[in-house]
Write a structure and sequence with these properties.
alpha/beta; 12 strands; Aldehyde Oxidoreductase, domain 3; 12 helices; TIM Barrel; six-stranded parallel beta sheet
Length: 297
């Protein structure tokens, strides 16, 4: 698919790992939703058709940025080849209020049409990066990592998981086919935790297999079976310490369930390898980013 984006934007989007066609479809849907088959009546009535201006996307609160290339792609889509776009703050940067993240110069009508979809995406992704950074800072000094889940907005998983990386977190599997995760419902269907593990290993011998356990007995079973990674579901910090001792390096351990920033440091100090935090993507507040127009003289 050919997109109306300059090479610099295409290169930046490649780092995200999103299919250009998928992003173009997302942007088109956002723009269509905003106009709903009509026109921007306020802009058409108040702004001369030939007026040009510069629009600055500005942080209103402290946070970590993510999605500047996505916002740039929105403006490139709407404004066409005559637009000038400058990403002034790279993704993953800690910003203070007043920091200019992206500056765009073009026809005022086009800038204002693209403004809200661009801000929605940039604010959402920067909110995820900011929330992730809080968790990463909370466990600073430990050997553990903050990891996301598949609790993402439909159609936005690659963007949201990219935002987690911008905040210093690491990604769990991107899809169901990337790796196996044997959860409680699989255990019920297979007749036991070890049985479920063995069935996956037999069917997909080269795949990493993570197994969710909710007791020390189950942990012992899956360690004996040869699990690569074990998810400790709703373990207390004391139980995690015992799980780390029992595992003795035979598998990586991931803490999950009921985690909060208040206990993040205590959990990381137990020696687990990962803290799984679904809230990074399903509950992160949007970072407040505004748009300031500067009319050309």
């Amino acid at each position: 698919m050919t997109t109306p984006w300059p090479p610099a934007i295409v290169e930046a989007l490649a780092v995200i790992g999103i299919d250009p066609a998928a992003l173009a479809a997302l942007i088109d849907a956002a723009l269509a939703e905003d106009l709903d088959g009509g026109v921007d009546v306020t802009t058409v009535a108040t702004v001369p058709a030939d007026q040009r201006a510069t629009l600055d996307l500005v942080a209103r609160q402290p946070g970590v940025t993510a999605g500047a290339p996505v916002a740039a792609a929105v403006f490139a889509t709407v404004c066409g080849p005559e637009v000038t776009i400058e990403v002034r703050t790279p993704d993953g940067t800690r910003v203070k209020p007043g920091a200019v993240i992206v500056s765009v110069s073009g026809r005022t009508h086009d800038l204002l049409r693209a403004e809200r979809p661009a801000l929605n995406l940039l604010g959402h992704l920067s909110g995820i990066a900011t929330a992730t950074r809080r968790w990463v800072d909370a466990i600073d000094g430990s050997s553990a990592s903050i990891r996301d889940t598949r609790k993402t907005t439909p159609g936005m998983r690659r963007l949201e998981k990219y935002a987690v990386r911008c905040g210093g977190g690491v990604n769990h599997r991107m899809s169901l086919s990337d790796a196996a995760l044997v959860k409680d419902n699989h255990v019920v269907a297979a007749g036991g935790v070890a049985e479920a593990f063995d069935l996956v290993r037999e069917r997909f011998p080269g795949l990493d297999i993570e197994v969710e356990v909710d007791s020390m007995d189950q942990l012992s079973e899956v360690l004996e079976a040869g699990a690569d990674l074990v998810l400790l579901d709703n373990f207390t910090p004391e139980q995690m310490l015992e799980a780390v001792r029992l595992t003795a390096g035979r598998a990586r351990l991931e803490a999950s369930g009921g985690l909060s920033l208040d206990v993040a440091a205590e959990v990381a100090a137990t020696g687990v390898d990962y803290l799984a935090v679904g809230a990074l993507t399903h509950s992160a507040p949007v970072l407040d980013i505004g748009a300031d127009l500067r009319q050309e003289s």
